[in-house]
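Please annotate the following for my students:
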Amino acid sequence: MRIGFITNGTEQDLQFAKENGFPCVEINIHNNLAEWEARKETYKEWLERYGIEVNAMGLWGRNFISPDESERERCFDELRRHIELASFFGAKVIMVGGGYNEGQPIKEQALRACELFPPYIELAESKGLKFAFYNCHWTNHITGPEAWDIVLDKLPTVGIKFDPSHPFYDGLDYLQHARDYGHRFYHIHAKGCVKIAGKPFDDPPAGMDQIDWRSLFAILYKHNYQGDINLEPHSPTWLGERYYKGLLFSKRFLEQFIL
């Protein structure tokens, strides 16, 4: 296991990573896919200059199972381009949501995803990429056991990008999720979270929060987890002048669990 972080895409982030012992960063694509494609040569030059790897890439917020055929085609075309970009950067894992249709049973959505994704899973794997579905709700129905039991069975080579904050905020047992499905975890996000009176309060750096990281790491070792842990700065409290300080705090905290 290695500790990396989700980058803003700046050269400064890569210089910080090199100077502070982060071997890898993660790139997440929102509505900026074309921008990343346009600057890929420059960014790869920076990666080589600082000796930093891209270990994972995420494509967020696409409704791959939309009833609108044109929307589906656009989303899958962006997924194809995302796979090519991840391969160019030498990433190990790509992460996407499964799409979401309000009011449709999860089982129906999961079966539809299993029909549509295989060509793109095969494309990713042909380029040496592992394919994972993230577990947050952003345009995604593949967030927990109800969908996992279908998708992981019908798509036996795919995995899960796991972030314990999502089940934590949903009032679910994230340790049980890790116990039962940790053998299919391909990538992990470490984002701290604090609830007060049952409601989200803030997302501080991992280690300054309420997640039981000790037990979670114990479960990961039980499953012989071979992926990385990427820190996710999330709260506005920690995205300004505290940005790098928060990353260093979480790195120091989580390193005690890296054997």
In short: The radius of gyration is 18 Å.
